[in-house]
Design goal:
Elements lengths: L1 H10 L5 E8 L6 E4 L7 H10 L3 E3 H11 L4 E4 L6 H14 L4 E4 L3 H15 L6 E3 L6 H9 L4 E4 L1 H10 L1 H8 L3 E4 L7 H15 L7 E5 L6 H8 L4 E4 L8 E7 L5 H13 L5 E4 L3 H13 L4 E4 L5 H12 L5 E4 L14 E4 L6 H8 L9 E7 L3 H8 L1 H5 L13 H15 L1 E3 L5 H12 L3 E4 L2 E4 L3 H5 L10 E6 L2 E7 L12 E4 L2 E9 L4 E7 L5 E22 L2 E21 L5 E23 L8 H22 L7 E5 L4 E6 L7 H7 L1 H14 L24 H13 L16
Helix pairs in contact: 1-11, 3-4, 7-8, 7-9, 7-17, 9-17, 11-12, 17-18, 20-22, 20-23, 22-23
Amino acid sequence: MEILSEVNDKLKTFNAKIAHVHTETFLEPEYGPSINEIDIDDKLKKSIIEYGIERLYKYQYDAYRKIKNKENVMIISGTGTGKTEAFLIPILDLALKGERSVLVYPTKALARDQLTRVYKLARELGLNVGIFDGDTPEKERERLYRNPPHILITNPDMIHLGLALSTRFRFLLRTADHFIFDEVHVYEGVLGAHIRNLADRIKEFKNDIHIVASSATVGATKYLFEELFGVEGEIIEGIRRRKGIAIHSIIDSGNSSRWTLAAYLAAVLVKNGLKVLVFTDSQQMAELVAKIADRFRVNLEVHRAGLIAEERIKVEEKLRNGELDGVVATPTLELGIDIGTIDAVIMAENPPSYTKYVQRAGRAGRRNNAGLVFTILGDDPIDSYYLRHPEEFFTRKIQALTFDPTNIEVIKIHALAYLAEKYRVKLNNLPPLWKKAYEILATESRAKIVGSYVLATPETKKYVATTSLRSVGPIVRIYEDKKKIGERELPAALHDLYPNAVYLISKKTYIIEEFDIDRLIAKVRKVNSELSYYTKPLYSMDLLEFNKKDEREVYGEKVEYGDMKLVMRVEGYVTYDVYSKRGKNEYFYENPISFTYNTKGLLIYHPLIDDFTLIDHMETYHATEHVLISAARVAAGASLTDLGGISYPSGHVVIYDSSIGGSGVSKLLFERLEQAYEVALDIVKSCNCEDGCPNCVYSPYCGNNNKYLSRKKSLRLIDGLIKGTIKGVNKDREGNPIA
């Protein structure tokens, strides 16, 4: 394509280039029977044909038959291949027979976006369709209560609070016959744990519930279905790929800033008349890319979590109406919200998982147009790995969802919500972890145990009303004077909100003037002039407690997995030049900021190397910690921020879930640690730096600004472990930890 030649030519300005091109050709699922051959209501047949469908794909017909028979199924098929119609046609036919369904979408925005699609098929059938979420007016709620709709569209957050706090909503939900969970690939990590517990509450720990799930991008198994919903279900597959053509390009950024390069590439594409969507995984980097784009005279606005909902909706409307050249977004626009036709997707960084890559790439070239997809690979270890092995980038398998259904912090939220609904719950009727959750809640005075029952307290409902399914950590509110302008969840907030930190919101620059971790408040001051620097925290981590749950041997060394109590201390910050990315100055606080929390992780017992000094050991294990976390992106589908690590000069390396209570990623790494070591070996062996750089053992999230690191010593350790030439005796964990 001519545009690729132009892009490659323009990239030379930044010493960057297109390193690999992958063409995704047109593919369509196998066809099944025509609409007129299917045993559905004649009015529905007419409505479907007018909608533009005259024949079903085979997988759609298989889904139709199983859903009509009330079998639990998960439908997996690529973007644009009709997975929505696969469940919508049978539930509309069931609705014409008087049966009711609940359609659950991950977000309010997506639920409201899909409402129009459902109406197109339902409006001529005389069916009652309604949406119920936090924005539904009271008058509309009354209508839905009085006349329960055949199809109720909602989201998990509404179900969570509605079941606990509203008798009428509870009746509306529990009298439904079918529950459809669309876009289930979103339900990973903490949110996946929430969905499992929400499903338990909906069915009240019984198995007589009909569940249909759907996604374009998830590695699904029967085991996953049961883990996510607590009931058995079958998998129905269409095709894994999207319907349509896409040109995927990997860009080698050289030594250039990926953020500047993403903004520049967006400008090149916009000036060619294309509408662009840029993805980053960091809220602050999304803001930075949009600000840099202004200098290239293109108008990119920001769409991310942490913004006020009204701001995000405005951006969606402006993009849909053609008022913007494009948008820089975090995963908030991964889902299929209608934002009009997007010609090109730019991924400013390698997405956290292949699932997310496929999902984001699917936003380009929809509505039968060829899509352009650009991924900028930089100087981190995994990007360097894929630049050496570009074919592996596109032949990866879509991972199954990673989440931890045993996350006790999540279970506590749902146990309390269930108690708010029931007022009194018999402990013997509950799963063991729910009993444990109630015991903890009783010690926190949020529930009361009397004999074999747990009872609600006067504060139970008040507390439940403040809970969220989007987090388990405390939420820090951000204020400019008295106006709330955003929020961040702990512990992630400590990476952005600390005294004198530079913080960006809606392309505006702020300085954190005060951070009160006890009151969960950050106060900011707006900066009108451009700053030449950004900031990162200097912090330490320590493992306070460890409760082993599992143990195995990997290359002759002991590895344990279990519950952990960690403490994070922000001790200062470092400033970096915006353009060169070089560190400038370090500053330290008199009183560090501390936060203690529980999570899950693995503890690796590396052997000590005989001829190494204390400093040698620190450099060896710290570098190995970094490179194993990088390798987890390949071995366990981890994102850059899913895992954190701690190293000890005694050889112990801790790798933990960043989410409070655990996300399940560290458990997957525990199970696949051999593969992680093999990828880590490739990283440290292939780099030609002197003894450590961003291509191998440096980490952008290192707590001590990438000190005490040695690629060569890590190579000696990992190579020796895999070959079996390095062995040692385990000793007690000791020495000062390095994060």
